[in-house]
Amino acid sequence: AQSVAQPEDQVNVAEGNPLTVKCTYSVSGNPYLFWYVQYPNRGLQFLLKYITGDNLVKGSYGFEAEFNKSQTSFHLKKPSALVSDSALYFCAVSAYSSASKIIFGSGTRLSIRP
Amino acid sequence: DADVTQTPRNRITKTGKRIMLECSQTKGHDRMYWYRQDPGLGLRLIYYSFDVKDINKGEISDGYSVSRQAQAKFSLSLESAIPNQTALYFCATSDLLLRDTDTQYFGPGTRLTVL
């Protein structure tokens, strides 16, 4: 069975500071890992994914995520937060290369204060 | 994503009523999905379709049915709506190409309230 956990319901960061949104996973075999972002009244948008290769993955809007196999984590990071980054962020995991097998986390609300 | 549209965007209905949510896409993708989003639970897969003749149940299909009328259209029906089906519903698509089968593109969502 596969699962994903986002331990923080909300993360608050001051604009200009670095941000981290945490994600841990459990899957048999090699994981496929994703981050999606949901802005108010919008559907989810793809940010980045890890399939294989370099543990540091760069995505849209200046976000990046680091795959850590030993800690089974895939934390989302950004060096300098913007107010416009405020949104709901979802981590997702799959043991297969098929979107039908993806499991989404419960989401973390990121709030960036000016 | 404007390439994936959902109608209606908001709907209030009563217990026992039949309701249909519609999804259309202009991305040319073969694969389409229906999810529901509940606060604190993330997204859960209801049904998915890999082509017009291929329909599959997801994690929480009970109480729902789907129809894939064409490559571009995928409808979700609640035959007899109940209050615990109140949620935000999303349609999504993904490409058949091996390098991108796992990336999904979401519609704007339909907020459904069952009284």
Explain the layout of strands and helices.
The complex is a heterodimer of chains A (114) and B (115).
Chain A (H helix, E strand, L loop, with lengths): L2 E3 L4 E5 L4 E3 L2 E3 L5 E7 L5 E7 L5 E3 L5 E5 L4 E6 L8 E8 L8 E2 L3 E6 L1
Parallel strand pairs in A: 2-12
Antiparallel strand pairs in A: 1-4, 3-9, 5-6, 5-10, 7-8, 8-9, 10-11, 10-12
Chain B lengths: L3 E4 L2 E4 L5 E7 L5 E8 L3 E10 L2 E4 L7 E6 L2 E6 L8 E8 L10 E2 L3 E5 L1
Parallel strand pairs in B: 2-11
Antiparallel strand pairs in B: 1-3, 3-8, 4-5, 4-9, 5-6, 7-8, 9-10, 9-11
Summarize the structure.
With 114 residues, chain A is mainly β. In chain A, 0% of the residues lie in helices and 51% in strands.
Fold and architecture overview:
The complex is a heterodimer of chains A (114) and B (115). Chain A is mainly β. Chain A is built from no helices and 12 strands.
Task: For the structure shown, list the relevant keywords.
heterodimer; A: 114 residues; mainly beta; six-stranded mixed beta sheet; four-stranded antiparallel beta sheet; 12 strands; 51% strand; globular; B: 115 residues; seven-stranded mixed beta sheet; 11 strands; 0% helix
